[in-house]
Amino acid sequence: MAVWIQAQQLQGDALHQMQSLYGQHFPIEVRHYLSQWIEGQLWDAVDLENPQEEFKAKRLLDGLIQELQNKAEHQVGEDGFLLKIKLGHYANQLKSTYDRCPLELVRCIKHILYTEQRLVREATNSASPLGAMMDSMSQKYQQINQAFEELRMFTQDTENDLRKLQHNQEYFIIQYQESLRIQAQLSSLASLPPADRQLREPALLSKRATVEAWLTREANTLQKYRLDLAEKHQKTLQLLRKQQTLILDDELIQWKRRQQLAGNGGPPEGGLDILQSWCEKLAETIWQNRQQIRRAEHLRQQLPIPGPIEDLLNELNSTITDIISALVTSTFIIEKQPPQVLKTQTKFAATVRLLVGGKLNVHMNPPQVKATIISEQQAKALLKNENTRNESSGEILNNNCVMEYHQTTGTLSAHFRNMSLKRIKRSDRRGAESVTEEKFTILFESQFSIGGNELVFQVKTLSLPVVVIVHGSQDNNATATVLWDNAFAEPGRVPFLVPDKVLWPQLCEAINIKYKAEVQSNRGLSEENLVFLAQKAFSSSSNNPEDYRSMTMTWSQFNRESLPGRNFTFWQWFDGVMELTKKHLKPHWNDGAILGFVNKQQAQDMLMSKPNGTFLLRFSDSEIGGITIAWVAENPNKRMVWNLMPYTTKDFTIRSLADRISDLNHLLFLYPDRPKDEVFSKYYTPPLSKAVDVDFLDLVFVLGSTALKKKKKIKPGLYQRLPGLTPNHRLYSITQVTRLS
């Protein structure tokens, strides 16, 4: 497969590296339009260190310039004219730059090809699922590019036929004028004497008969040309529709789906550059064919010939208008979504983009885009084309923005940087639905014309569902609504319907993606972790993952109904774990030091067979966003597993987990058998760090299983022993506060 086709599919940093290879020294347009020729040359056959090889390099330079000039010569149409000028300019530029040093051109292209091959090789590891996916994408992209080449050839063919038709019609009109002149001469014979009339009339009649016979034959020929041209345009439009459906209904919809999953922490949706280039090619091809059809209609009006061509041209014109309308309205998209949990009185941003705006010169009269917040019901009515009387469900400040054209990237977009939701109007809620389950959307709309006001478009696009909150305490439940919607929405749904229940493995995939994104870790949830979560969600004791494969979880189980014996839902507990890990435990989670998803009984079973002082870290069952330490130790009567009272974010803002573990001398080994200093010492606060500045210190004294907690005012950093304590009591300072359950 051509390297250039694969290079165009690079994403992220690899794409930026590829783009940085090009510039004035070698324009990327040259690489694009001459990709096959460039990759077909023997650049490696030139020894760059041998000056005598310069003649080979000069031959390659001349060949490159000749190819550019040939490419320029074959450009037609309005946009082809601009490309023709651009390619000619590049030919002169490269000749001027490398004519005296052609070896440098070879060096430049060898470096470009080597780097592209390396980047593609790194991205396309055929042994990995990603590599197989990229190879599949490459094949699809190749098919799309081949279809564009077919469309280009079809369009060039109909352009040639149209020119031929125009030439023949012009000659026909000349001959028709000649027949009128002959008829006029025949009419003038009536004023001549009979002898003169008899002398001249036979020749004129013969000439008229010959011309009229030719006109009759030629009229039939012209009609056939017109019908043949219309049939060719029909085939072109069929291929155009097919290509546009593939790009808009498959590729663009998939990009939007990836964008939605990225809202849950999935991989980035990827850039729009390839999609924009395809949409621009579609726009260019559609516009060229539209102009051809209009020229054919003009020729028909100029010389009406009875037949079916008038209806055919009307049908073609209607079809091409439908195609371009679908393209323009579908490529008005939201490049950067507004936040899906939207707090009132808080600044937020969004970006909308018209993928074909630059190609259709929409920026010559920059359109304005307006943003409005609407309810789920209003969104449904909008998609049904029902009259919503421009209703909104709230007031957004700074909600108008003019689209800007960025010449370097060829993008036309509107960047809303300082929007703010001033107020929200809520609808009547259904049943047990809470305010954090109510979905809104931001409607972006604009109007513009193309082709000198030939076509006027009103375009609209809806953001992903938005949940509006007025207080930070609602964020947790609002995020649950967004997570469920992003994960389980189906393409083409009625806004914003989602299934009320999903298979447990589907939910596991969604929360695992969310967890890794929130914690910013490559360590996701293991199968054991997911079994623990299933036990919690379904109040089950089974340790077999297969038992949960076919089980379903409802939205109510996820975030409406409290877990048995608790005052919080499954999601609220899980979200608390994510928040705690993200803010305070990320390095320990990444190191594998936190087992986390282990219940009290499991912890006891695991620790009882280990030496005294062995401990593990698990997330609290009883407190949202808490982590506890379980350890095994000798009691005067028997060996026991102890569980500390859970630590929360509030505790870790005072002293870190690693320091707290360091302070607890009875903790010796992290389960199963790793010395605690080996695991945590790199996170200990250096001993000379500034003491905690507080007035009152909590001192906890432990004797066996008895906890005595006293409060005493002491100077920070000093250790003091209180009266009445025996050597069996263990003393902790403020930096060693321990709460026991």
Report on this structure:
With 741 residues, the protein is of the alpha+beta class. 50% of the residues lie in helices and 16% in strands. Strand 7 and strand 8 form a beta hairpin. The longest helix is centred in the first third of the chain and has 69 residues, at 194-262. It is elongated, with a radius of gyration of 38 Å.
Features:
21 helices; 741 residues; Signal transducer and activator of transcription; activator; DNA binding; elongated; 5-stranded mixed beta sheet
Q: How much strand content do the residues show?
A: 15-25%
**Overall pLDDT, averaged?**
85
> Separation of termini?
65 Å
Q: Give the number of DSSP strands.
A: 20
Large-scale geometry? elongated
Individual helix count:
21
Poorly predicted ranges: 689-741
* Helix/strand structural class: alpha+beta
The helix fraction, in percent, is 40-55%
Radius of gyration: 38 Å
Largest sheet: 5 strands, antiparallel
Family: Belongs to the transcription factor STAT family.
Protein name: Signal transducer and activator of transcription
GO biological process, one term: cell surface receptor signaling pathway
Subcellular location: Cytoplasm; Nucleus
